[in-house]
TrEMBL record:
Protein name in UniProt: DNA repair endonuclease XPF
Gene: rad16
An individual GO BP term: double-strand break repair via single-strand annealing, removal of nonhomologous ends
Source taxonomy: Eukaryota, Fungi, Dikarya, Ascomycota, Taphrinomycotina
Record carries keyword DNA-binding: yes
UniProt-annotated stretches for the region Disordered: 456-476
Keywords, sorted A to Z: DNA damage, DNA repair, DNA-binding, Endonuclease, Hydrolase, Nuclease, Nucleus
Record field: compositional bias (Polar residues): 467-476
Matching InterPro entries: ERCC4_domain, Restrct_endonuc-II-like, RuvA_2-like, XPF, XPF_nuclease
Family of the protein in this entry: Belongs to the XPF family.
Organism: Schizosaccharomyces japonicus (strain yFS275 / FY16936) (Fission yeast)
Domain of life (superkingdom): Eukaryota
Stretches assigned to the ERCC4 domain: 637-717
Length: 861
């Protein structure tokens, strides 16, 4: 097959050749243009008559691959329920091509034989590190390998850290992918380093020194975090291992999420103080990040919001312990001193301080240097400023547009922000006074608005050493009781953006673009803009690789990179931690690949082995009078509703040896036998169904058509197996409580059986026991239950408009089918339907009510 890969760098061609020659998992360092390699792999196998499936690709991946494949003159078809119908998908599959299909649609198409599995040329899997044994993607791969032993599977990932989490994560990922080979290409790979270091770009590094107040505030926040972690260890040391919970772990971007996941199984056993401490960790991490990126006024407003929200908690709940610490008091005082201070001449008058971010001066210096270089040439240079998030982009843009680039470059912007902040305080104070006038008790307002009022001097607590305890900070409202003079002073100096002169703006001097980091889309951004100067306002290791790849691809282009960071702060430590963690992850993957056990018998071979199937079907619980006919090689059958494929249970049932038959069921979610019908509910869905009354209609339908209706309540395996924490149970159970509604449900339906399942794994075992000694269900019979005479059982429903229909008043579970299976095609035709036709469909009362609702005015005249 003659195909010339459009890959400019030698290491990219090497990766392409290795992936093409052998199926396997390719682990690439982030920023090395892995999607461009994927596009060339897809184009290589895209020949007339071939059928290629792109699996586990998000919207950004599809958009980028479409651009790359357009250059290779190969179309990419994105398949979802909104863009293509069932008949359209079947016709498109038969024509061949490259298809990006969601895993849920692909599972249904494979099980219903809409897509010929044996004719699929191969699968290309993105983000392979996120493939789990119970996910829909693993379900697709299992179905593909069972029906097609010759097609290829090629997987890619650029997140090596996820493959080192847990025990044998790499082996588990390969097992789910049905692969044996692993290709690893880190940044320190010999060929990668040679290709990127041949023509390095000119880099100017700025180690920006943070202000003394920023350093002191960072120390205060870290001290509060240390105290919070120490308190968590002390309270939960009996039943929780927290040796790895250190301050260094804070540098991980998902530190608080990891802690919450670790605590989820024990969440019902934790005290309210522990839950408050976990929430405080998230708040403190947010403050630590915002201290570097926010300006002084925005940070003070964020801190005031945290204080007010902590003071507004229920008095029965625990207050945030970190706010009671001395470093927290210092943090609050320093945050206010950066914005305003007391006038030395008038103690009751506050004057603005407005401490600017140090990076702003560095940014001005860099832009002046670029402007000076541009004046020497006739070509207008292109400059790209990259930031961590959109908020920082808007901040820089406001700074560049509002300043005149003199000695007080940031004064106008800061004055405007201070005016908005003082206006926010005045509006808050006004709302508080209005609530007092309306009769809300003052004590209640103080408990909800006040955070630790200052202790009177004669009531100060004596501390060890003989000195008085430090007075705590007050609320933002109390600390700014005399803001009117400051507000008047700021209003007299602030100018609106419309009146400012923009003649000296850098946007008019040269092409200037301010963007935030956006993953793989940054590769296309660099190619489209072709910048001559790149200013990395915030550090990002992956973007540095992208700049290296861009420079190595276009060595003839002029490129100069400015790299700024706050030295000695969390920003520098987080960047170094990310680089070190990536290197350690690749080193660990290389060692694990060298010591990994070689599988001589793959999983797909055991799934198709007749002896293995027979041993799986043997029922060892057969006693006297048991039916020996259950010892057959036929797979046990489970009929599953199409909507249930959003969960992991169908995949786990198939992996356990069940034959999963997808159908559009009107009654029940899972049909285990002609007598057994199961309605599965997760805990949130159970609460919603009980409140809306939908569960009552579902149980009524099951009881009418099946001998044994079952309500299965399934819990998340990563959370506690408990319906409601003991601490949240009230002394008396009312009629609106969840327990009361379940009791009423069982009283209304005596035949209904309720089964509690701790996880999807337990549900599979429960289904195995329930199906023992029962006959297999018939799909045609199961689909016909609940349909009105003359309704078509083979037609499928689009869930989005049907859910909208069920949300309308006067439309219920009993009468919505009359509308769906009538001549009404869509919601637009339903709105235009005459009153007489609606009354014929759903009855006089409901029809008239729905007709009047559709024509009700939006505004009450």
């Amino acid at each position: 097959m003659e195909f010339e890969a459009k890959l400019p760098l030698s290491f990219q061609k090497e990766i392409f050749e290795e992936v093409r020659n052998e199926d396997g998992l390719c682990v690439v360092a982030p920023g090395l243009s892995s999607l461009r390699i994927v596009a060339n792999i897809l184009a290589y196998y895209s020949v007339p008559g071939s059928l290629l499936i792109l699996l586990n690709a998000n919207d950004t991946d599809i958009e980028i691959l479409e651009k790359y494949l357009d250059e290779l003159k190969k179309p990419l078809v994105s398949v979802n329920t909104d863009s293509m119908s069932v008949d359209g998908r079947e016709k498109a599959y038969k024509g061949g091509g490259i298809f990006a299909v969601t895993s849920r649609i692909l599972v249904l198409d494979m099980l219903t034989h809409l897509i010929p599995v044996e004719f699929i040329t191969g699968l290309v899997v993105l983000h392979a590190d996120r493939i789990t044994a119970t996910g829909s993607e693993a379900f697709v791969l299992r179905l593909f390998r069972q029906g097609n032993r010759d097609g290829f599977i090629k997987a890619f990932t650029d997140e090596p850290e996820r493959l080192t989490m847990g025990i044998n994560a790499l082996s588990g990922c390969l097992r789910c992918l049905f692969l044996k080979h692993v290709s690893i290409f880190p940044r320190f790979h010999v060929h990668v380093a040679e290709a990127l270091e041949n023509s390095p770009a000119a880099v100017v590094e700025f180690n920006v020194e943070a202000t003394e107040s920023q350093k002191s505030m960072q120390t205060c926040i870290i001290t509060c975090i240390e105290s919070t972690i120490k308190e968590l260890r002390r309270i939960n040391s009996a039943h929780l291992d927290m040796e790895q919970w250190t301050v260094d772990s804070l540098l991980h971007r998902s530190f608080d999420i990891i802690i919450r996941r670790q605590l989820d199984p024990l969440w019902h056993r934790l005290s309210s103080k522990t839950k408050t401490l976990v929430s405080d960790l998230t708040t403190l991490r947010s403050l630590l990040t915002s201290l570097i990126s926010y300006d002084c006024i925005s940070f003070l407003k964020l801190l005031d919001t945290v204080i007010l929200s902590a003071g507004g908690r229920n008095p029965m709940q625990n207050q945030s312990p970190w706010l009671l610490l001395e470093p927290a008091n210092t943090l609050i005082n320093l945050a206010r001193q950066r914005v305003y201070s007391v006038s030395p001449t008038s103690p009751n008058v506050q004057v603005p301080v407005l401490e600017a971010l140090p990076k702003w001066d560095i940014l001005k210096t860099i832009l002046d240097e670029i402007k000076q270089d541009a004046s020497k040439t006739d070509v207008t240079p292109s400059t790209l400023i990259m930031c961590a998030d959109d908020r920082t982009c808007f901040q820089i843009k406001d700074y560049l547009l509002s300043s005149s680039f003199d000695e007080d470059a940031s004064l106008k912007l800061m004055q405007r922000k201070l005016r908005d902040y003082l206006d926010w305080l005045q509006r808050y104070k006004k709302i508080k006074n209005e609530l007092q006038i309306k009769g809300i008790p003052k004590q209640r307002l103080e408990s909800s608005n006040t955070f630790r009022k200052a202790v009177p001097p004669n009531k100060r607590r004596r501390v060890r050493g003989g000195s008085n305890a430090t007075t705590r900070s007050t609320t933002p409202v109390e600390a700014n009781d005399n803001i009117e003079p400051l507000f008047s002073l700021i209003n007299s100096h602030v100018t609106t953006p419309e009146t400012e002169s923009s003649e000296s703006s850098y946007f008019n001097d040269f092409s200037l673009n301010i963007k935030s980091y956006d993953g793989d889309y940054d590769d296309i951004l660099l190619e489209e803009l072709s910048p001559n100067y790149i200013i990395m306002y915030d550090a990002d290791p992956a973007f540095i690789r992208r700049v290296e790849v861009y420079r190595a691809t276009h060595p003839e282009r002029q490129l100069k990179v400015y790299f700024t960071y706050y030295g000695g702060t969390v920003e520098e430590q987080r960047y170094l931690f990310a680089v070190r963690r990536e290197k350690d992850s690749f080193s660990r993957l290389i060692r694990e690949r060298a010591n990994m056990t070689v599988l001589l018998t793959t999983a797909e071979e055991s799934l198709t082995d007749p002896e293995h199937k027979f041993l799986q079907s043997v029922n060892t619980r057969i006693a006297g009078g048991g039916r020996v006919s259950s010892m057959s090689t036929e797979q046990p059958r489970v009929i599953v509703d199409l909507r249930e494929f959003r969960s992991t249970l169908p995949s786990m049932l198939h992996g356990h040896g069940f034959s999963v038959v997808p159908c559009q069921l009107t009654v029940g979610d899972y049909i285990l036998s002609p007598k057994l019908c199961v309605e599965r509910k997760s805990v949130p869905d159970l609460i919603q169904s009980l409140n809306s009354g939908r569960l009552y209609s579902q149980c009524e339908s099951m009881q009418d058509h099946y001998e044994i209706p079952i309500l299965l309540i399934e819990f998340d395996q990563n959370k506690s197996f408990q319906l409601e924490p003991f601490a949240e149970l009230s002394a008396e159970i009312g009629k609106n409580d969840l327990q009361s509604k379940l009791v009423l449900l069982t009283l209304c339906f005596p035949k209904l059986k309720i089964i509690w399942s701790s996880s999807a794994y337990a549900t599979v075992l429960i289904f195995s026991d329930l199906k023992a000694l029962h006959e297999e269900p018939d799909p045609e019979t199961a689909v016909s239950y609940g349909l009105e005479p003359g309704q078509d059982a083979t037609s499928t429903l689009n869930r989005a408009p049907v859910d909208l229909l069920l949300g309308l008043p006067y439309v219920s579970q009993k009468n919505y089918r009359n509308i769906v299976y009538s001549n009404v095609k869509n919601v637009t035709e339903l709105c235009d339907t005459e009153r007489r036709n609606l009354t014929e469909l759903i009855g006089p009362e409901c029809g008239n009510g729905l007709y009047n609702f559709m024509r009700k005015e939006l505004k009450d005249v």
